[in-house]
């Protein structure tokens, strides 16, 4: 159902931001130049809520050079002091959490409660890596008498972060915080669809005392601003989150330039529901997968593999959850907001249509939200009778569409789960601990969840197998990907 507008205030972007946003370089907005202007849309109303000037190649160069100049001092700063800087950023994000959440909800469409969770997570990244900043160390390696060997973990320099539109601030801070803790500086390019919180956060970081140039933000599309950023010779590491198609292009640039790269790409995550599972818990988890960012999440479980013995009961339970979900403007805090754009909405609707033509049964949803004329809304949708050869089971839809596939044996279920080009996340629901551990070992995914399916804490490494990407974010593991290893060999005789 569609939620009502309960006295929502008029749309208004933060007064601390200029009418036309520009890149944030060395702690301040760059002067207006000759770049084209682009609107920022509220996807729930299709109204423009902001405007920015695309950063030109020259502007990108200035941002990178600023970050490189700042790196010299930042990398030599006592790690304890770097940690204190990061802790102050965490405090600044928490102090402005309400406004950041509101902006995140406006430009991404996500419900306000989800946006608040994202802002809290963004602050937590800085808090966590503030505590790690002075604990990045190498090791000693035993050698024959007369030789002493030790290793050092050192920063790369300037790291480029290209972030997606589905979780703009948390995706930014997930990479920026460990980069800064390790002594790197960063230039961030948020999606052109959702730049608001990235720009405001960069200003808040400077106000919190982060040295100018340590975190710069450039604005624009991937094929222009993003390409200029990844190809700049002073960028020594690239981190990209987005589609497999664009990830391949970014990876090709990194290979050509011989720089390291983190790629977090797509997913088609399965969850195996065994006959002995708590079906209520599993059904709720299946509905939550289409709630988070309206299904626009790379790790969302969108293939529910269900034992045929409990298939009918499970579908009935899941249908009840999906049909009861509310849809509306993010600031009204419904269960689901809109999709990010008209293009994405059309793509999702096309996938649903193809699935039914391929033989899937439409159990709930399946199209536009009744009574809604504006906004990129799609009703939460449940498909049963799906087989793993259907496009809806193989392609990343990025929308509120859940599919149920029946299986007859656990070996068959594992085979279906692994029969995909992706390997970002997976899950299993069962009452038997031995079954859970056996299936977890056999699933080809970077993260496996048991009897739950939601995001894990900042302490838990995250990344994919196969076409889901390269490298790991989060936890202490992220530090290894944002540092390079040096071995020192000393003659002691």
UniProtKB/TrEMBL annotation:
PROSITE patterns: ALDEHYDE_DEHYDR_GLU. The active site is at 264. It holds the Pfam family Aldedh. Residues 38-488 form the Aldehyde dehydrogenase domain. Keywords: Oxidoreductase. It comes from the Bacteria. Belongs to the aldehyde dehydrogenase family. This is Aldehyde dehydrogenase family protein. It comes from Actinomadura vinacea. The lineage of its organism: Bacteria, Bacillati, Actinomycetota, Actinomycetes, Streptosporangiales.
């Amino acid at each position: 159902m569609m939620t009502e507008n309960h006295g929502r205030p008029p749309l208004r972007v933060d007064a601390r931001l200029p009418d036309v946003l520009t890149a944030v370089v060395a702690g301040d907005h760059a002067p207006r130049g000759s770049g084209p202007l682009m609107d920022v849309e509220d996807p729930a109303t299709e109204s423009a809520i902001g405007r920015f000037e695309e950063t030109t190649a020259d502007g990108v160069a200035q941002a990178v050079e600023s970050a490189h100049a700042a790196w010299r001092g930042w990398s030599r700063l006592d790690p304890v002091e770097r940690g204190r800087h990061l802790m102050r950023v965490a405090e600044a994000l928490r102090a402005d959490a309400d406004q950041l959440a509101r902006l995140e909800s406006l430009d991404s469409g996500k419900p306000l409660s989800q946006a608040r969770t994202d802002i809290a997570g963004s602050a937590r990244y800085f808090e966590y890596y503030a505590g790690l900043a002075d604990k990045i160390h190498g090791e000693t390696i035993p050698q024959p008498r007369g030789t002493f060997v030790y290793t050092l973990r050192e920063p790369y320099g300037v790291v480029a972060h290209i972030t997606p539109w589905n979780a703009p601030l948390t995706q930014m801070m997930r990479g920026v915080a460990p980069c800064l803790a390790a002594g790197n500086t960063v230039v961030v390019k948020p999606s052109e669809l959702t730049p608001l919180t990235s720009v405001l956060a960069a200003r808040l970081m400077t106000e919190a005392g982060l040295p100018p140039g340590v975190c710069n933000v450039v604005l624009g599309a991937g094929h222009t601003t993003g390409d200029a950023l990844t190809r700049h010779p002073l960028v020594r590491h690239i981190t990209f989150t987005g589609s497999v198609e664009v990830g391949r292009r970014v990876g090709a640039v990194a290979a050509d330039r011989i720089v390291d790269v983190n790629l977090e790409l797509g997913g088609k995550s399965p969850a195996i529901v065994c006959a002995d599972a708590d079906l209520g818990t599993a059904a709720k988890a299946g509905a939550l997968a289409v709630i988070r960012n309206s299904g626009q999440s790379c790790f969302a479980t969108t293939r529910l593999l269900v034992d045929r013995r409990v298939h009918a009961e499970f579908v009935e339970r899941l249908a009840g959850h999906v049909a009861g979900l509310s849809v509306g403007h993010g600031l009204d805090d419904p269960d689901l907001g809109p999709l990010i754009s008209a293009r994405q909405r059309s793509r999702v609707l096309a996938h649903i249509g193809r699935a039914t033509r391929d033989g899937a049964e439409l159990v709930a949803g399946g199209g536009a939200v009744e009574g809604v004329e504006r906004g990129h809304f799609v009703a939460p949708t449940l498909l049963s009778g799906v087989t793993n050869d259907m496009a809806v089971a193989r392609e990343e839809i990025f929308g509120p569409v859940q599919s149920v596939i029946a299986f007859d044996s656990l070996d068959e279920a594992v085979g279906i789960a692994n029969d995909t080009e992706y390997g970002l996340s997976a899950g299993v629901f069962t009452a038997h601990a031995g079954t859970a551990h056996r299936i977890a070992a056999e699933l080809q995914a970077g993260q496996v969840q048991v009897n739950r399916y939601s995001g894990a804490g900042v302490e838990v490494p995250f990344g994919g197998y196969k076409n889901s990407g390269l490298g790991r974010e989060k936890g202490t593991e992220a530090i290894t990907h944002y540092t390079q290893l040096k071995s020192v060999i000393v003659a002691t005789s």
